Automatic annotation (TrEMBL):
Ranges where the record places region Disordered: 1-24
Functional description taken from the UniProt entry: Catalyzes the oxidation of 2-deoxy-scyllo-inosamine (DOIA) with NAD(+) or NADP(+), forming 3-amino-2,3-dideoxy-scyllo-inosose (amino-DOI).
Protein name from the UniProt record: 2-deoxy-scyllo-inosamine dehydrogenase
Species the sequence originates in: Streptomyces toyocaensis
Entry's EC annotation: 1.1.1.329
Compositionally biased tracts (Basic and acidic residues): 10-24
Keyword Metal-binding: yes
Lineage: Bacteria, Bacillati, Actinomycetota, Actinomycetes, Kitasatosporales
Amino acid sequence: MSTAVVVDGPGEHRLVPHEPREPGPGEALIGVHAAGVCGSDREVYQGNRPEGYVRYPLTPGHEWSGTVRRVGPGVPRSLVGRKVVGEGFRNCQVCDRCHAGETTLCSAGYEETGFTQPGAMAATLTLPARLLHVLPDDADLSAAALLEPAACVAAAALKANAVPGERVAVVGTGTLGMFAVQFLRANSPSALLVVGTRGDREALSRQFGATGFRTKDGPLPDDFDVVIETAGSADAARTAASLLRRGGRLVLTGIPAPGADGLDPTDLVVRQLEVRTVFGAPPDAWAHTVRVFAAGLLDPLPLVTHELPLDGFREAMELAGSGDPKVGKVLLRP
């Protein structure tokens, strides 16, 4: 019997029998291969996700990969059997922001797979086919389950617009930081520095293309053209800004808790820093991610350290929040 995880409320979850929902017009039914566990999934389980950004009871899972099993009316049958990943934001497609391609800013209100709509911690997932991105036939679906966080970083990389020969840096050494290293490396920088809190991430950073590694409490340079911040810690944005030369470009992706150190507006103006931000991934970032993945320039698998069945949901939540350096990305497999 196929199953699904249901979180009824903070700290309460069940494993329930799962009946696939047949795809309606414009929809596709996906056989889920794997769902990644993210910090926001822990927020759902712990009950500290911001109001309006979760709707209980809920099947979580916004990072996923799978294979199209069936399609509804109006969807090309050629999709059946294809390996896919999918966007999470259920945008309206008709507001000004959607027409501009900025679907994460959809003015119709927030709806997202795994938070307000059923997610992928189940045997199947049914969603609008327009959200799907098709993978190569030989794609590794366990690796592809990490393409959602990669797409968020791709959005940052596109906004950073690093060009060959520039000096670039990444602040943060988690999943997002390691993807940022890979995207920036693909642009042939002259230097690629990673700044983190843990020295044990240096080897992986260099494996992905870093040319230098520093911990944030040591002396840091101030001559970089581009910095992508992924840590979301209280002082990460300020650390990232300090790495930039005058006129440098900063992209912030981490979401710190209230009370974080703010950027100094005087410093921003006097040094003419350009600051951009990312929350989620619009379609162009997803398409870019799939292209880079298909080209072999993105290697998510070294980030996966644990794969568990769906009935290991509680253990997955504990692993993801353990702070253990040996725990990277955790996947749940239906």
